[in-house]
Sequence to fold (799 residues):
Amino acid sequence: MRKLLIVWLSVAVMHNLQAQQFKQISKVKLSDVVDVSQAKWVNLNRDTLLDVVLTGKTSTSELKIFTFENLTGLGLAERETLLTDIQDGKFVLTDYDLDNQVDLLVYGRNDTTGLIQPFQNTGNFSLSESDIVLPVTASELATFDLNSDGVSELITHESISEKSHIRIYTSSNNTYTLHSDTVGITVSDLKIFDFNKDGFADILLSGSNEVNEPVVQLWINQDSLKFKINALISPVNGKLSLMDFNADGYFDVWAVGLDSSGDRVKVMWKNDTGDLQVESVESEVEPLQIFSGDMNADGLADQWIFGKTDTDKINKIITVTDTIQLDTVGLLLIEPGDFNRDGNLDFLQVIDSADGIWVKLYTNLLEVKNQRPNGSAVAFGISAFNRAFIYWSPATDESTASISLTYDVWLKKNDESILMPNYNLIHKRRDVVDHGNNFTNTFKVFGGVPDDGYAFEVQTIDNGFNGGYVVCKGDVIPCFDIEPTVIEACRGSVVELVSDEMSYWFSLERGFLGVSETLSFTASKTDTVFSFIPQLTNCSKNRAWAVNVITGNVSASKTVFTCIDNTIKLGIPSGWNSITWNTNPAIVNQDTISFLVKQPQTISVEAHAFECTLQYTFVINLSKPDLTITPDRFQIQRGNAVQLEASSNASLFQWSPAAGLSDPTILNPLAAPPRTTTYTLVVTDSLGCTNTGNVKIEVQQTGFIPDLFTPNRDGKNDVLLIYGLTQTTSFQFRIFNREGSVVYQTDNVNDALASGWNGTTNGNEQPAGMYYWRVEGLLPDGEEVLLNGNKTGSVFLMR
Fold:
């Protein structure tokens, strides 16, 4: 938080304090004295700056419209005025004719009828009065595309026969038709926003009911202009404002007005994924205007309240760390806006003084400038099922949290705009001070358009209502041949959908669902679900599922692979009743059970809900990777190596012990153990299930004995010696002639190694011929003593 260094001292120094952050740089006097009702920042001449439109009531109650030009961020100059015959008139800003110029939609009444009438922006500060589009008397009006078909609906508050009505009008070919009428709420303020991020704009209103009790209602848009009405706790009758105060991507609400006891309060509702819950209630003034926006370039939402007590007016900005008190002398209204395009919010004040009505401009003097947000890096669009599906990656900003950024979307086909944004399509400057038309959503599902090629742009807007000058652009690729797979599912059940690879998931009812290879889709109502894999103009990998929600009997099965002795959880979606599992003993009234797997088997469950019987079968298969080791026994001489031969369909391998192996983590390592060793191979599959095998390598600690010696006293090979043995725990070596008589023996391995047999017995030379030897004994490791790998052998004595 970059603190606003402003301290409230006294009224006498108020202007000095204001100058520390806000400084008056110009003022302009209205050419006529009117009872000012509204002033809005709006681009009226298609340059890069915000101009001003101001309305007021003349002495004869007629609405007069003033337009002011922004003089390069240094001041305002009155340009055009238009006197109408509309009484008690107010206006909303909207691009009525989709020409990328913001128009005025005025509502009020004339001498004969109530009216809603466009005043179209023809450029150069001129407004052209058009025909009345609806002959009704509205005290509140909002316009927005509530069903994402490119045509804005009108939401009005009207008083008819002394009863309050909230009405929604649809439009076709510039003709409005009453769609719905709700009786009983007198509206004091009305806001449009997608509070639950499902892609459909919701309605929030403050007012009073038929017995004059305060009401705040959230109308959740359930598509097709059907709404679920939720009454908020701790309601007030007053003014509403919106901003994502806790940076979680869901816009919160605060209101200032009168509570049920008639006290002046400020109430904050925190938005918990579309559920507005009371966060705080505190005393406040009677509101004239309230505003939410980043006034000090820290990325956080500040609150601006202009109101009054019984004796005084209050004009203050509430930041996280400060409360900034501003001037109230003669103040009629305030309107924040970045009129010099430096990134920081400035404001205008309309002042009633003795010599007329003045519009004063105050510039924001913060040295730290709020930089404009970045555009999205990734975007794609696909047209299918008479809808355009658009997705873009979340953008970033140096101060506003990425998840709190809003987006303005432009959709067009060739030169025809289908959805018009509130930024200039040429130089990308914003034309109004408002959030984007797509709120905080990073997707758009646009209905009522044929499957065809389109183009789109997306602008990012931060908490200071700065729009990024670099917009994200993309094309919508038509995909005509997506045939949906039909799935019948009981209401409340979960359908597992699998795509070929990482996909972007959408549904017709819920909009964007996420990015993943698989989707667990809860079948709450009939819907069509799509998995999109962007690949330029190729649609071959895109898939669709028509999920039909039914009541009655639904049967399904699921195969579960697990390891033996694993405890697994089996479950059905929550919300089912009378649940019975066919275990032994049976388990009832639990939608999830834990089960110890000892063998392959089948477990079924039956449950009931919404007149639907679910019969679900779990086929449990043991996962055990294949493993074959052949042969499972080797004999090698010490110092030699052997290739272990194993085969398996597992993914991980581990031999133990690792000593003597070239690599203990591969299937077929080389083994050269120093002594006889049994190696164990553990193989593991993708589920973590294992199989085990063994191979024994016998390492023969063998000595060596020649098969020929020549005791002829020539100094060469005269003695039969044993080679290669060192230590033994027991040892006996004997040589036999053909008759089986012992001709040489020793129990000392060192004698056999050093002295050996010289071919004599008791001093008598033995005849030439074949002799036979036998060795017995143990090595220190318990292995038998061997010569040439054997316990017996022969040697030829030659003279």
Summary: Residues 14-21 form the longest helix (8 residues). The chain has two helices and 61 strands. Confidence is low (pLDDT under 50) at residues 1-19.
